[in-house]
Amino acid sequence: xxxxxxxxxxxxxxxxxxxxxxxxxxxxxxxxxxxxxxxxxxxxxxxxxxxxxxxxxxxxxxxxxxxxxxxxxxxxxxxxxxxxxxxxxxxxxxxxxxxxxxxxxxxxxxxxxxxxxxxxxxxxxxxxxxxxxxxxxxxxxxxxxxxxxxxxxxxxxxxxxxxxxxxxxxxxxxxxxxxxxxxxxxxxxxxxxxxxxxxxxxxxxxxxxxxxxxxxxxxxxxxxxxxxxxxxxxxxxxxxxxxxxxxxxxxxxxxxxxxxxxxxxxxxxxxxxxxxxxxxxxxxxxxxxxxxxxxxxxxxxxxxxxxxxxxxxxxxxxxxxxxxxxxxxxxxx
Length: 333
Description:
With 333 residues, the chain is an all-beta fold.
């Protein structure tokens, strides 16, 4: 989960905004309030791990090391299970947690959807289905009786798939890339999704540009908004790919019970000294996708929200392990 950039992250000032027009509004400043932080140490025999997390509606979470280890953390940050040698989670491409606090994970070899839950003091696979979609998954969410998966489409068109409970592909949907270039296709596949169980709709954002979409379970477009406005073209390149990093890069998003959307975004802009600065913030958007607040200095990477409106972040430390932090947002006194 560590991002491949050596550019320093500047601390953003928390401020209240009023939508794309950036007009003045009653000055309500928000802040993060930490509820707890849990640390999962890396085993001495482990190589560097690619940790990822799935947040459950009840606030519990599953953390995978990308290999065969899964940690189950409860709502209070206590580790319930730390289990290794789980072949059903090896080579995981995407994972999510459903309303029953079960972990669903898509593995690469073989291409399966494995459902895992605590039983009799251990994490046990309770069902397994073949993934019948040609999509290469990157993210997934539990949606009703099935799943919605985001990933790379071999045909280069629609990046979202609605899957049935047994892994069968039902519909393909989503916006088309801005063009047929490889960077536009990657930006779609590397986007973020969240499912609103109360309102029965999906929110999707490509990595870039900073643009949000809302879809019905049948794939019908309900709403879209250009949140980023005019996008600054960055000259900073990713050290691993050599590709330019986008001016606005959405890292992840989470839906709150109020219908608001929390978006982790990195913006690249010229500084007063003439250099380029990358600023990491969490932006709070209302149900109409208008920015109402920006909060700087998040404690890691946004992983999701629970049904009480708490936000969950993880931060991995190479050679040590991973921190999980639960926060809530409140007006600053």
